[in-house]
Amino acid sequence: MHRNIGGLRRRTVVAALTAGVVALTSFVPGVAVAAPADGPAPAGDVGAQVAWNLLYSEDFSTPVNPGNAPWVRETYANPFDTIMDDSGQWYRNDYGPDWNTAFNSFNTYRKEFPVGQNGWLTASLSARDWDKNGVIEAPPSITTQAQGGGNVAVLNVPDHTGGAIFRPTNKLPSQYRIEYKLKTIDFGGKRNGSIEYGGRVNGYSTSGCKTQHPWGEGSNSPGWSGDASAPYCEWQDVRSGPYGYNGFHFLSIVDFANPAPRNNHFWHYRRKVLMDSFSQHPDRVGSGTGGRVCNSNTNQYYNYRDGNFNTVNMWISGLPNWNPGPGGLAGNSQWFMTNCSGGVAEQQLSSAAELQPELMPNEFYTFAIERDATGYVLEASGNFARVGQKTIRFHRPFIVNNAPIWHYNTEPGEYDGRFNNNLVQNDNNGSTTWANQWPAGSAYPDYFVIGDLYTNVYEGSASLTDIRLYTPAPPTTTNLALSKPATADSQCATAEAPAKAVNGSWTGGNSDKWCSLGTSKWLRVDLQSNQQVGRFVVRHSGAGGEKPAWNTRDFDLQTSTNGTTWSTVASVRGNTADVTTHTFTPVTARYVRVNVLTPTSDSDRAARIFELEAYAS
Length: 617
Description:
The chain is mainly β and 617 residues long.
């Protein structure tokens, strides 16, 4: 669910490259793309690309086998947190003793089992036992079926109080790409123009009540009494009405180990980046727009109410409201990226595209998330409504204009504690302060989640296959440019000749560099024979001990087989880093060139390259 997302807006787009070594990494299979800054990385762009090694792949050719994994009653002896986990103190402080009665009116059961090579995946299920007699009335399942010449995993959640997800068994590495193919989806939205289809309403069965009980919106939320003693059917209706919505997490990265289905509000405080659907019932849209959807062909928005309600939201979690006030809920700010915003993350409910479920399984959608040295990439590919076949891809640095991705640091050294604060609840039935929610020295592992996370909202089924985890391939170590003939447009002094940029040294003092004050500033290296080139390393002013403000700001990296016709393999704008690494699909080249467009970030006019290195990969 997406709450109100007011707050500070992004005002400008800046590159978030910090001093030090920065790898500009991104990936589209078979296409080189650039993603160094807050913004889109369309499939047609030329730029940096990671060479990936496939670590694990699961195509479900071996059927999912839960074996003897039992349903185990959840006691909450080891909660994920004490805030808004299912048994969280937040609800007691808000709703009072009546909430305990509601929470204890049923039992929750869980089942988990390993999937895939070496059990690298875990299937995690959650269900309710309404009568507390050990019998689960509507158990969810994850099974394997044949489909279209291959096999798929089918996640089936017959009641909105269940949950079914895939997650990694172990934490993700510091840099990775996770992807999969979604073959079918039936978690709400319109089919052939109608929200009612197959005897269901927005994907929900029509039998019985469907409410958020016992994890309702905060007691001060409009549209309901806020009274935890209300009967089950009087809590917020998720099937229709002003709180009616369905959805699915296509792919999310969360900040804690071994995630399992929980109530929806818990997740609003635990996600880093995500792609999900938000299928609102028309009652919820009411007389409003329901949000907006981007047509990425025209870069114009249209109203959600005018679409098919099968949205793809591509967004990040930002800082939370540290003190939401009585009757409110803990939750992070929400920042959405679309082509219509130029890929800039904005605090307004905005969908990047809409799926066309009617085309599935004859057509499918691919979802992927990458983590590189500077931020996260979110990517969705397929035949989108109003747009057609397309790859939509955005890179968001960890921090832009002092707005971070929540708990982005997977290692303590990636974060300095600047965003730490206390989460404070002063509510109608109690007050609690949870201190140091993001302190220096902290670290939050990346775990992906695919499926139905929520145990009080979402109902339906989906099928998927080809879950793949990639890690960066190790680079080659032979510097093809080392000691090769180098020329340039000019040099600032005799001691700052082009050869200094390929001598293997950048710590020999201020003269251990190439420098140019020419009108056009370029440095060319003759590799002396055709070579496969797939990676450049450029060491700028700061790497040699000079002012970081003189690091090359805007430049193109180019290759040629004849020294006359040049192809740009990486374009960098707004750089402030001392050292930049640029990896791309390997090309054949005899000559390589740095073409400097803006030499520095201040008024100095000289270009300075302390070392240019070229590698096969």
